[in-house]
Amino acid sequence: MISSLPTTFNLRRRKICISHVCLICHNGVESSFHALVRCDAAEAVWEESKFWELFASFRGGCITELFLFLREKLCKSDFELCCVIFWFIWYNRNQILHGGVTKEPSAILEDASLRRNEFCASLSSMEVKVLDYEVPRNYKWKPPEAGLLKLNIDAAVVKGYTYVGVGAVVRDHWGPIVAAVATRLVGSFGVFIAECLALREGLQFCLASNLEVNVVETDALNVASAVLSYSPLSEESSILADISLLLRRFRNASVHHIPPTR
Ligand SMILES: [Zn+2]
C-alpha cells in the first residue's frame, strides 16, 4: 500500500525527485515509515495520541511491519482510527510542503476521531442502491496495467436522508488499496448527482494526495456519459465543470463505466 505514497524516497525511485531527504525535518530519508511515523510532524501527533506507548514499543523499521503489528495489537475500531490518523498525517504533510493550512497534533487527532465516527455512522445507515439493469454475472474488478493507478468511486444514497456517502479507492496493478477516502456530504441528492459528487471528491482526494491516477471507473453509466459529453447548460454543469477541470490536472486520466461488482 504505502510504497505508492509519493514520498521523496519513492519519487527518487521513480526518478522524479533528486533528493530523498525529508523536506520537512531534513533528518533522513523520507520513506513512508518516516513520513507517517518518525518525521517530527508525525511523531508529534502520535506522542499526543493514546497509541504513543504502543508506537514506542514497536521495534520494526518499515510501515508494512507496523501495520501488521498494529493489526495484531489493536481492536478493530482503534486500528481504523490509526489508519485515519495516518491519512491526516499525510494530508498535513502535504499542507506543510505546499503552503496550505496546517493543523496542530491535537486538532489532527480530533479531526481523525470525528471522521472515523462519521464514516462508521454513514456505513451503518447506507443502503445498497437499487440497480435498474442486470449485473453481468462474471464481472470482476480488473487491475490497471503495471505502473498505472486506477481510481474507483461510488456513492450511497438513502432516501429521506439529508446527506449522501461517497467513497473513492485507488489501487495499482497489484490490486491492494493504495489509498482510500470515504466521507459524508450534506444535502439531499439523487443518485446521479451523488455519483458526480463522489467522482469530484475522488479526484480532489487524489490531487491532494499527489496520486497520479490514470484510469477512473464508476458504475454509474450516466455519470461516465455526462463527463464525456459535458454540457454547460445541464443541471449538474457546475459539478461536471469541476470534474472536467480536475481531470485536466492528471496527465492521462480517462473515465470509464464498469458494471457494479457485488
Ligand atoms: Zn521528516
TrEMBL record:
Domain Reverse transcriptase zinc-binding: 4-46
Leader sequence residues: none
Domain RNase H type-1: 152-261
PANTHER family from the UniProt entry: OS05G0353850 PROTEIN, POLYNUCLEOTIDYL TRANSFERASE, RIBONUCLEASE H-LIKE SUPERFAMILY PROTEIN
Organism lineage string: Eukaryota, Viridiplantae, Streptophyta, Embryophyta, Tracheophyta
Domain of life of the native organism: Eukaryota
Protein name as catalogued: Ribonuclease H-like domain containing protein
InterPro entries: RNase_H-like, RNase_H-like_dom_plant, RNaseH-like_sf, RNaseH_domain, RVT-Znf
UniProt cross-references to Pfam families, sorted A to Z: RVT_3 (PF13456), zf-RVT (PF13966)
Record GO terms (molecular function): nucleic acid binding; RNA-DNA hybrid ribonuclease activity
